[in-house]
Amino acid sequence: xxxxxxxxxxxxxxxxxxxxxxxxxxxxxxxxxxxxxxxxxxxxxxxxxxxxxxxxxxxxxxxxxxxxxxxxxxxxxxxxxxxxxxxxxxxxxxxxxxxxxxxxxxxxxxxxxxxxxxxxxxxxxxxxxxxxxxxxxxxxxxxxxxxxxxxxxxxxxxxxxxxxxxxxxxxxxxxxxxxxxxxxxxxxxxxxxxxxxxxxxxxxxxxxxxxxxxxxxxxxxxxxxxxxxxxxx
Length: 233
What we know:
Layout: E1 6-9, H1 13-25, E2 30-33, H2 36-39, E3 49-53, H3 61-70, E4 77-81, H4 86-94, E5 99-102, H5 107-123, E6 137-140, E7 143-146, E8 151-154, E9 157-158, H6 163-174, H7 182-189, H8 198-212, E10 219-222, E11 226-229
Parallel strand pairs: 1-2, 1-3, 3-4, 4-5
Antiparallel strand pairs: 6-7, 7-8, 8-9, 10-11
C-alpha cells in the first residue's frame, strides 16, 4: 500500500476523529486539518487523497478545490457534504472531484469509496507525457480540463465545447507558448480522412475564444504564423 497519507479537511472535530480512527484501522496513514485555510498551509502534493468538507468557516471546500486545480495539483478529492442537490454535485465534479459523498454517511460506505477512488487512481498508467490517465487534469488559473472525462470548465462552470474545440484547447494549453500554424493544427486535431481548409481553423478558434469568456484572450494570433496559448508578456 502507498505510504502517502490521506488528508481529512473538516471543521467537525468529532467526525474527523471517527474517520481518522477507522481509516487508520484499514491501514492508512491519516492527517487532519480543521479548515481549508489550515490545509492550504500543508504541502498537499504529499497526500494520496483529500477528504474535503464543502461548508467550512473561511475558505469553502469548493474554493479550496478550485485553487488546488488552478495550481496544477491533481490529488484525488472526495467531497464530504450535507449539500446534496444535483447542482452541488455537478459543481463538485466540475472542480475535478473524484467522488461526492452526502452527509450523513456510514463509515463503511466512506471506506469502500475511499478504496475505490484510490484503486482507480493508482491503476492509472502514464505511458508518456501525452497519455491521458484517470483523474488527470490540465489547468490554467480557473480554466480546467479533465482529461479522463474529456470535459472542461471555467471558474467552476462547465464549458459546452465541441470535440474539435476541446482538442484544440488541449493542444494549445499543453504546449503553452508554442506557435502552431494552421496546417499543424489541422494535422493534429482533425481526422486524416476529412478534407477541410485552413479557414476552418480560424472559425473554430473564434468559436473557442467566445466560449472561453475572459480566458479566450490567452489564445493569441500570430499574423503570418498561426496561434498560441500565451499568459503574460
